Amino acid sequence: MEDLFALEEWRRHSPQVPDGPWFKDFGSFMLCGEGSYPKTFLLKRQIPFGMEVE
Fold first, then answer.
1. How confident is the model at residue 51 (pLDDT cuts 50, 70, 90)?
2. pLDDT number for residue 40
3. What is the per-residue DSSP string for 1-54?
4. Least packed by Cβ within 10 Å: which of 5, 25, 44, 54?
5. For residue 21, which of 8, 10, 4, 37 has the smallest C-alpha distance?
6. How large is the average pLDDT for residues 10-39?
7. What single-letter DSSP state applies at residue 10?
8. Cα separations (Å) of 23 from 30, 43?
9. Model confidence over 26-49: pLDDT tens digits?
10. Angstrom distance (rounded) from CA 10 to CA 47
């Protein structure tokens, strides 16, 4: 549940993400996207593609 709250807080701050593929690690899952659009969630054991954002 804490990781979902972290996602909500991160999105509230209008994060800067690259134009291409990116991912953000929230601990129990990763959010992946391209440009300003989130596209999918990955489980911790799955391998993300793109640049990691803070």
1. very high
2. 95
3. -HHHHHHHHHHHT-----SSEEEEE-SSEEEEEETTEEEEEEETTSPP-SEE--
4. 54
5. 37
6. 94
7. H
8. 7, 12
9. 999 999 999 999 999 999 899 999
10. 21
Q: Is residue 54's pLDDT more than 90?
A: no
Please give the Cα distance from 16 to 4 (Å, whole number): 19
Give the residues across from 42 on adjacent strands: 30
Q: Which amino acid is at 17?
A: V
Alpha-carbon span 19 to 53, nearest angstrom: 12
Q: Are 39 and 33 in contact (CB under 8 A)?
A: yes
The partner residues of 40 in beta bridges, in order of sequence, read 32
Partners of residue 25 on adjacent β-strands: 30
Neighbours of 33 (CB within 10 A): 18
d(CA 40, CA 30): 8
